[in-house]
């Protein structure tokens, strides 16, 4: 673990009272309001030296430490994406800090485009696996043999089981599917979507995969849920844009919040 992560964790503990944190949540586009529901302390990323600036509209660049449904959580109101800096490891330091704070499980959320007609806008999908369509990797440059991270069950089976049970308890339909990571920031072409679909993807987006690889590298259990904000290019007549993504995100976000709350209650 880097010395910077240790120093930041100490700074955060001093600001929040020092209680161990159990679950880390990374919030995607349109989901930042969930951070406002945490009973705790919000620390702007700008106050955490070395933290990436979340420069995407629709994100809320604060780290919130506190209690949600009886569970101690650390909530990232936004993430840094590869397309902002060209760095696949942009979220490494924040995740190292989570590890230093005692987190054992990271749950990421994202906005994604659907490749399946029966998973329309407003749906949510629990990731069962991913396809790194970008070919990038946040561990490029890591010098130790720890870089050779096995990715079988990258999305922890027990956490996924708990999330599915939470969805059932919340009376929320939640699909299971494979997420393809596309680097962005431009959206995919219809030809790229056809290719990704043939490879087995159910949804596509521009985040999450780097964080999951980093989480596994750091020994954290990982899970992720997508909110479907649009049909992917060529799948419908929708006009795809970031503004459209932000406008549609709240539809799935309300379902996702119910699932997360039920899950946290189940482990509290």
From TrEMBL:
GO cellular component: cytoplasm
Pfam families: PNP_UDP_1
Pathway(s) per entry: Purine metabolism; purine nucleoside salvage
UniProt GO MF annotations: purine-nucleoside phosphorylase activity
Residue ranges occupied by any Nucleoside phosphorylase domain in the UniProt entry: 22-265
Gene3D superfamilies in the cross-refs: Nucleoside phosphorylase domain
A biological process term (GO) from this entry: nucleoside metabolic process
The entry's keywords: Glycosyltransferase, Transferase
Binding site for phosphate: 29, 59, 79-81, 111, 207
Subunit structure: Homotrimer.
Record's protein name: Purine nucleoside phosphorylase
